[in-house]
Design a protein that fits this description.
Order of helices and strands: HHH
Helix content: 55-70%
Distance between the termini: 11 Å
Shape: globular
Number of helices: 3
Number of domains: 1
Number of strands: 0
Strand content: under 5%
Oligomer: single chain
Length: about 45
C-alpha cells in the first residue's frame, strides 16, 4: 500500500483536509485491514 496516497485519500474526506493524528491513524488502520479492495484502489 502506498502510504502517501493513503494519507491524502483519508485527508480529503475531512473538512478542509485537516484531521488530528488519532483520527488519521484510526482511518488508515481501517483501510489497511479492509482487504484487497483498498489495495487495488490505491494502485489506480
Amino acid at each position: 500500500m502506498n502510504f502517501q496516497v493513503t494519507v491524502l485519500k483519508v485527508l480529503v474526506s475531512y473538512p478542509d483536509g485537516l484531521a488530528v493524528m488519532a483520527d488519521l491513524k484510526r482511518d488508515m488502520a481501517i483501510l489497511a485491514t479492509s482487504g484487497r479492495d483498498w489495495a487495488e484502489r490505491v494502485k489506480r
